[in-house]
Structures are given as C-alpha cells and as structure tokens.
Design brief:
Layout lengths: L7 H25 L3 H4 L4 E6 L5 E4 L10 H11 L12 E4 L11 E10 L2 E11 L25 E5 L2 E2 L1 H8 L5 H29 L5 H20 L4 E9 L8 E10 L2 E5 L15 H16 L7 H4 L2 E4 L18 H4 L3 H8 L16 E9 L5 E9 L11
Parallel strand pairs: 10-11
Antiparallel strand pairs: 1-2, 1-5, 3-4, 3-6, 4-5, 6-7, 8-9, 9-10, 12-13
Length: 400
C-alpha cells in the first residue's frame, strides 16, 4: 500500500481500525486489572503514538483527565533519557511523576515501543489509576508531595523483555496492596502488548511499512476540523470567574478564566486564579490542559476522535505556582476536586461566544469513596478500593 497518501475512504477505514485497536487494548486492560477503579470506573486510557510521540488514536473508554497526557510523557522521554534510537523491542518505561503524567502519583504511565520489520514505527502507552502508591490514603490531606507516596522517575520496567526486579520490589514494599497495584501495572503492560500486536497485524494485512504518513493525515484532518469549527465563532476575549468553598478552605478559591478566540485558535488564560493551596487540591499544568481542552473539544468538534491534531489549536496558560499550575512539592493528590470544576468557567466563557453550542454545568466534581482494610478470609490481605459517585450532565440548548 502507498505510504505517502490515502484517499478519503481508505483513510477512514484505517483510522477506524486504529481506534478499534486501542479500544481492544483498553478492554484487555479492564479484563486483566485487579482493581475496581480500572475495571468499573474506567480510570485509564490507551494511546497509540507515532515516533514523534504524537497521539494518533486514544481509547474511547477513558476519562477527560488523560487527554494528551501520554503523548506529553512520551515526548518528554524522547527528548530526555530515552531518545528514539535507544529503544529496543521488549522495552517498557514507566513513571508516575505528576508533572509528566496526569497530575498525581496514583496515575501510572507505561510506554512501550512498537517495532515492525526491525524498525521502530511508533509507541503505545497506557495510563491508569493504581489502587495504592503509598503515603497517606488518596485524598487532599497530605501536607506536601512526600506524604503522597512513592515517586517513580522515568525508569525501565522492562529492558528487552527482562523485568526490572528491583523496581518491582521497591513498589511492592511501599504500597498497601502490592498484589493489586503490581497486578494493575502488569495489566497495563498486557494492554500495550495487545495494542502492539493489533497494529502489526493491521500493517501486515494492508502491506503498510510504517505509519508516519497515516499519522500525518489523521492529525492534519483532525486539526482542520477543529480549526474550521473555531473559525466560525466570533473573535474576542470572553471572561468568567468561578468560586468554590468547602470544608478545610479558610477562604474560597477563585478560578479566573479568559477564553480568547482569534481566527481558528483558542487560548485559555487563568491569570488571576488563586495561588496554590496547602491542601492537596492543586493541579499541574498537564492536568489543567486536559480538563480545559475537553470542554472546548466538546463544544467545537465533539465527533472527531481524540488525537494530537484535535488539540493543536488550543493553548492553555496558568500562572506558575497557582492552583492550576502547581510546581515543586506542593500536594496534588486530590487535584480532581479542582480539575473537575474547570469545565464550568470554560463553558461560562464560551456561552458568551457560541451560546447555541454550550451545555450547562454538570454535577461535578465527582465524589470518591476510598475503602482500605484487611480481608480476614484471605490471610488478612490488605486491600484498597475506590468507588466514584458522579452527578448528571447539564442540559443543552435544545434538550435536557
């Protein structure tokens, strides 16, 4: 098959096949996971990337917090200690660094290379909320990042198919539920392998040597769709101020949001937002980007699958050291309490520009019940389980 250009029908078929591949990998992750947070709450994502770390396809079963996260992690690896020519078949790299992944330590990223005919042609990555990562139980109570558990810097979990026993032992000895946690990480590795096999099978079937041209066309088509939709909105700066209070907050927090539409691009600026808090409700910029880009995409291009191109026209800014751009060692464990609110100021600003396209606020943030204990029927084995409770979605202009 010609690797340079694909007609519209062929592109659509191959694109759909790639989405099916990452969804199959996501199903493998769910079915082999040891925890309810993955199996039932879908707190994971699977992403297929090219050799530049650009997202080509993301699993349709996922949560908004993982939009763009794995590609950001992959690009960091490629530009740092793991350049493209250093990867070997059977390598697996992992990290849970909040600044590189999804904003708190329980979210563990796992990236694997994909080789075809002895040549690296892409990557597949998963990110999943593991049952426990040590420290205090998941919540907002930690005083700093050290109390939030084990930090895994970008490290090889497997090197050419050989497991890093030292890293496995380190994790096992620092978490409450080692069987669940290691089981979930191994489920991520299995999902990566499922996706790798699916892509290689497709490439052999259609006689495709690499995916670079296919990735370029998918990303370009998605970017064009988003830019075309944004360009129909009026130019301007649209502002919305959102406040929140609650137990443990001595004074309300404020999220100041300015949505700037200029031509076919959108910039969201959170200048004026409250400073980082002593409670673990702070969000890193990766996480802020994900929960900002999500409502924008829902508004302008909801039907185009998530990939690198769909988010190219979106820029997100937040003051360094603020609630939405946490740095250093401030606690971030319950950053979801803040991130789950971001759609509200974004929609509040967008409704001034495109009122017919914006839905009302929903019942967020989600509540989470965390259960920790020992099972007397299983030799007092310790367990950690999460159960999410969500409110309903807001109404749209023409329907509930």
């Amino acid at each position: 098959m010609n690797n340079k250009n694909f007609d519209g029908i062929t592109l659509s078929i191959l694109w759909s096949r790639l989405l099916a591949i990452v969804d199959e990998a996501g199903t493998a992750l769910q079915r082999t996971s040891f925890s309810t947070v993955t199996r039932e709450s879908n707190d994971f994502a699977v992403v297929l990337m090219d050799t530049k770390g650009r997202s080509i396809a993301q699993s349709t079963i996922s949560v908004p917090s993982f939009l763009g996260v794995i590609p950001m992690m992959a690009k960091y690896l490629l530009n740092g200690d793991f350049p493209l020519d250093s990867w070997k078949p059977g390598d697996v790299v992992t990290t849970n660094d909040p600044q590189l992944c999804a904003g708190h330590k329980p979210d563990v990223g796992v990236v694997s290379p994909i080789f075809h005919k002895n040549k690296i042609i892409g990557f597949i990555g998963t990110i999943s909320h593991v049952p426990d990562i040590g420290g205090v139980l998941w919540g907002a109570g930690a005083r700093d990042a050290y109390e939030e558990g084990l930090l895994i810097p970008p490290t090889k979990l497997y090197s050419e198919g050989v497991q890093n026993e030292t890293l496995i032992s380190l994790i096992e000895n620092n978490v409450r539920a080692p069987m669940q946690t290691i089981g979930d990480i191994r489920a991520q590795i299995a999902a990566n392998d499922q996706g790798r096999k699916g892509l290689i099978s497709l490439m052999d079937e259609v006689e495709l040597d690499d995916i670079s041209a296919l990735a370029d066309q998918i990303i370009a088509a998605s970017e064009k769709a988003m830019r075309d939709a944004i360009s129909k909105a009026p130019d301007g700066t649209f502002r919305y101020s959102y406040g929140a209070d609650g137990d443990g907050l001595e004074e309300p927090i404020t999220i100041e949001c300015a949505v700037i539409i200029k031509g076919d691009e959108i910039t969201v600026d959170y200048e004026g937002t409250s400073s980082a808090h002593t409670l673990g409700i702070n969000a890193v910029l990766n996480y802020t980007y994900a929960y900002t880009a999500y409502p924008i995409k829902c508004t302008f291009s909801p039907d185009v699958p998530n990939n690198d191109g769909a988010f190219k026209p979106i820029t997100v800014k937040a003051p360094r050291g603020s609630l939405l751009n946490a740095t250093g060692y401030v606690p971030v464990g319950a950053r979801n309490m803040t991130g789950n609110m971001l759609h509200a100021p974004v929609f509040g600003a967008l409704v001034q520009a495109v009122p017919e396209q914006v839905q009302a606020d929903c019942g967020a943030p989600c509540w989470c019940v965390v259960l920790n204990g020992r099972d007397p029927e299983r030799d007092n084995m310790e367990f950690v389980e999460y159960f999410f409770l969500n409110g309903g979605y807001g109404a749209r202009p023409t329907r509930d």
